[in-house]
Design goal:
By secondary structure, the protein is mostly helical. Among the domains are: 1-86, Tetratricopeptide repeat domain (Serine Threonine Protein Phosphatase 5, Tetratricopeptide repeat, Alpha Horseshoe); 393-465. Helices cover 76% and strands 0% of the residues. The chain is built from 27 helices and no strands. It has helices at 3-17, 26-38, 42-55, 60-72, 76-84, 91-103, 107-116, 125-137, 141-152, 159-171, 175-188, 193-205, 209-222, 227-239, 243-255, 260-273, 277-290, 295-307, 311-324, 329-341, 345-358, 363-375, 379-392, 397-409, 413-427, 437-444, 446-461. Helix 8 (125-137) runs antiparallel to helix 9, helix 13 (209-222) packs antiparallel against helix 14 and helix 16 (260-273) runs antiparallel to helix 17 (277-290). It comes from Candidatus Gallibacteroides avistercoris. TPR repeats lie at residues 26-59, 159-192, 193-226, 261-294, 295-328, 329-362. Pfam families: ANAPC3 (PF12895), TPR_19 (PF14559), TPR_8 (PF13181).
């Protein structure tokens, strides 16, 4: 908040604490109310305006704002009373009357009010944008498109309206309409790098990366130093697995003054995808040197050191990440996994336990705790952890096999047999229709594993399976 506004805000609140209201002019009351509005405190903004009306009774600007805030706090009947005595021809009053009708589901009357604005002498791009925002808030998309088309015929510079339309269509996932809107913008001004980039983003959302990259190229032909276009082109190349080209794009981004830490992380991700782990570590190290407090950089360094078998370095960076953010369950889970692999069971249990404490639905940590107890030949203690994973992902074949073995090793033969029958039903071809796609491949590969398991356990479970 600017100094003058902050001073007004402070003075108003100090006087209010004393049970007094300072004498402000209309603009000053308006400023204080607006500051409350920016904080989302519409009730207090309404109170400020009503205090202003005590000092400036009948002021039209304050009366209009009172009606607006009454609508914001959903005092619809009171807002209607206030609006009924306000000047009919005022554009802001008409917008408020339309909003009132939308609250009351009187949609036809609302659109009539809004359409009447099109013939006003003062109809402007800003007023049109206010109407579009209102219609978006009430999800009246067909009416929004219709109003915008009419408005575009009445305004000479349509750029702001078309860009707002494109943004709205993107937000509402009406991507084909967004593409058409960007096409219209580029017909008006084919040298707008901003609109070429907007077009690229919509194509990328639609997974049409070739067209997205082409649109970025047009943007860069107009402004070869456009950082947004350079970085977005790199993202698109990465998503199409053109990692070498993506690295070159991010390198160009850095040379033109882009954020080095972000670019180095992205380049590292490309190298990791190319299985060039040493190069990935080198760029992540550069990013870490720039911003050692970035949790994601520390985590990615740990991942890459883990992949190269440098476990102590992985541990060190995970501990650095935890020192920055000690509430991230996944960090503890990863650290616990490393200690489990190193058979440092006490440390593994400590960190995995913290992971589950922070997030009881951390499947990986629950699975690893179950594995830890199974390795320690404590199957009874492994069972609850495997059950927790199955509660979260009922069709997880791997954990089902582990639970069967844990039940068997704990001497719970009935439970083991019951699970085998349940697993047999899951992997039956007739039973896979409702199974999530990400589990189907595991399930369809499980038949031979189930036969092997039966053979291993048959001596004790033969009558039950």
């Amino acid at each position: 908040m600017e100094r003058q506004g902050a001073d007004l805000f402070r003075r108003y609140n100090e006087m209010k604490k004393q049970g007094k209201i300072p004498y402000f002019d209309v603009e000053e009351f308006d400023e204080v109310a607006f500051l409350y509005e920016t904080k989302g405190n519409y009730n207090e903004a309404l109170t400020v305006i009503q205090n202003g009306l005590k000092q400036h009774p009948g002021n039209i600007d304050l009366l209009i704002k009172e009606a607006r805030y009454l609508l914001y706090v959903e005092q619809v009947d009171e807002a209607e009373k206030k609006l009924s005595v306000l000047p009919y021809e005022d554009e802001e009053v008409i917008v408020l009357k339309a909003e009132l009708c939308l609250y009351k589901r009187e949609n036809r009357q609302a659109i009539e009010w809004l359409n009447s604005l099109l013939d006003h002498e003062n109809f402007s791009s800003d007023l049109c944008l206010d109407v579009l925002d209102l219609l978006v808030d009430f999800n009246r998309m067909s009416e929004l498109t219709d109003f915008a088309e009419k408005a575009l015929q009445r305004i000479s510079d349509t750029t702001d309206i078309l860009r707002e339309l494109a943004s709205i269509y993107e937000e509402k996932e009406q991507f084909d309409l967004a593409l058409k809107t960007y096409d219209r913008l580029l017909e008006q001004d084919p040298y707008s790098s901003t609109d070429w980039l907007g077009l690229a983003k919509i194509y990328a959302i639609k997974k049409n990366y070739e067209k997205a990259i082409e649109a970025c190229d047009y943007a860069l032909a107009i402004d070869e130093n456009d950082l947004n276009a350079l970085s977005f082109r790199g993202y698109c190349l990465f998503d199409t697995r053109r990692y070498e080209e993506a690295i070159a794009a991010f390198d160009e981004y850095v040379k033109n003054g882009g954020s080095k830490s972000i670019a180095y992380e992205l380049m590292a991700e490309c190298y990791a995808a190319l299985k060039k782990t040493k190069e990935a570590i080198a760029y992540l190290t550069k990013a870490y040197e720039i911003n050692p407090r970035d949790v994601e950089t520390c985590y990615q360094l740990a991942v890459n050191y883990f992949d190269t078998g440098e476990m102590q370095s992985a541990i060190d960076f995970l501990k650095k990440a935890i020192a920055i953010d000690d509430k991230d369950s996944s960090l503890y889970s990863f650290l616990g996994e490393i200690y489990l692999r190193q058979r440092e069971f006490a440390l593994a249990e400590n960190y995995l336990g913290k992971a589950v404490f922070l997030d009881p639905n951390n499947e990986e940590a629950c699975m690893l705790l179950g594995d830890l107890k199974a390795i320690q030949e404590m199957p009874e203690e492994a069972i609850p952890y495997y059950n927790q994973v199955l509660n979260l992902t009922p069709y997880d074949i791997k954990v089902t096999f582990k639970l069967i073995l844990a039940q068997y090793n704990a001497g719970n033969l009935e439970e083991a047999a019951s699970l085998i029958k349940h697993l047999d039903q899951i992997i039956n071809e007739n039973g896979t229709a409702e199974i999530p796609d990400n589990n189907k491949s595991d399930i369809l590969q499980a038949r031979n594993m189930l036969d092997t398991l039966r053979n291993i356990l048959r001596d004790n479970l033969d009558e039950k399976i």
